[in-house]
User: Fold these one by one.
Assistant:
Number 1:
Amino acid sequence: MRSRALTTLFLLAGAGGALAQDVTDDWEIVRQPEDKTVFAFVPTTTGLTIAFRCVDGVYGAVMAGLPVAPRQARIRTLRIGPSAEHLHDSVWSVTTDRTVAMADYPASLARSLRDGGPVSIVVPGGGGEGRNLRHDLTLPASSAAIDETLTACGRPLEDPRDALLPEIEENGLPRGVVWTRQPRPTYPATNYAEGFAVLTCVVQPDGGVDQCQVESEFPLDGGFGRAALRSTRNARLTSPGETAGQYAPRMIGFRVNYRMR
């Protein structure tokens, strides 16, 4: 199982050919400079493998060894936290291998797991017959490997935006904020028939958005993140409970699913 999971993870990371791998008390790390790839991973005793990777400037988090996702499902929710009593929902994209998923907000997850220690991961419905499946793990600390993946992709080692993510509700907006003009991305010039991108932005006092950044995207070289970023230029929101032009800054998140018709 571990061999199959790692092979899948390396393929998703874009890694191929000869790999330079360090095995230390830290997370295991793979470097492939010719492909601009840095890949940190840890296999767990329960069969999961958790990995963070930077491939040519695109950051991602991958989890392998999950129960098979339901047929036709494109996303799945995992509940993650320091214990079974303190879990939060996180959204993951299902890959072509339906036991593998990619996190919508990988850099924030990387920063939250690098200290190691107890972690609970709950897969809703993953135990069959409507039962949840829970993995109670003790992860090793990553003193360098995870930070190396973040730095390779220009992601900060500390980011105050992480504290704002829990305010984003299922629709991607904090409570009390609604779209008046949603982003309308166009399909990028690419050879891929489908893909996705997840972005975060900060709401401005006048309802526009700024400080937008791509949190995750796939395929890595599909241009879907850049296309989604361009669509934010004319997007606008309103906060009915506040005075127009004086909206408090807050973070929004949204996913764009692309499929060629």
Number 2:
Amino acid sequence: MNRPFASGCRRAFTSSIFKGMLLLPFAGLFTPEARAQHKTDAPPPGSQRSTRSKILNTGADVLQNKKPIDAMSAYLNGFHFYADDMGRQVEAHHFCTHLTEDFHQCVIFDSNESNAKLIGIEYIVSERVFNSLPDDEKKLWHSHNYEVKSGELIAPRIPDVAEHALMQDLVTTYGKTWHTWQIDRDATFPLGIPQLMMGFTRDGQINTPMVENRDKRFDVSTAGQRRKRADIAERPVVNGANVWQSGTSVQLTLAEVQVKNLRR
């Protein structure tokens, strides 16, 4: 890579106009209507939080700093599918930090409500960084070209001019996504091992009712977003991304291994 990543840097996604837009109140982003298609209200195991737990949580919230969380400056809503099964599709709520001009990191939840379940992470890099990756590493990444141009990826509740600028920055980026909770199979517990996820690349791949459900909840139009983004310039997808298009992909499997440097 041509320049090091500044680990402590929080930057805006694009121009100074968008920086200003990010200062607008974010209360509208976290409305009850933004539930995902899965049972977000299905509670994980355990009893209701006790009064003691609530007091401790409130105290921690007041007294502790949460700089990594505070640095999350963008909220994106989109869709992923399991790298080895396009029939398993999941709505994903991303909360992202822009560490450098070339690198974003996002935590992914199944909704944007206070009881949302953490289901994964995504790293997003520029085309320049993606080009520098080894071929085996590129197999883990997907392009964002179609997600942006199709209107499938949205940044809810921010003004059109700000969202358009954000999408201009994201259209040539690449993402590596791992879901740690297979929410489509069990909404109550994160069973199993992390799974590699991918993004859609053309019309006809995504579950249309899932998109329609999302659009209704957020009062947006994916088709309308597609028209608005027609002027966003795009570049050919770099070879090595979206490896699943060949008909084979990579995915984690569980295996027993010998423990190295074991200390009993």
Number 3:
Amino acid sequence: MVRIDHAQLRPIAGDSEQGQAVKVVARAHRTLIGERTRILQRMRTALEVV
């Protein structure tokens, strides 16, 4: 679509400050979920050994 109809497409607007803040919070949330998952897996592994 970009190759063929590039003349009809409008430029994409940049993110607002609020949009950027949402991105930061969402990334932090995903990171924390990943850390929680890793910790739970380590705990399960440690408990299986006992």
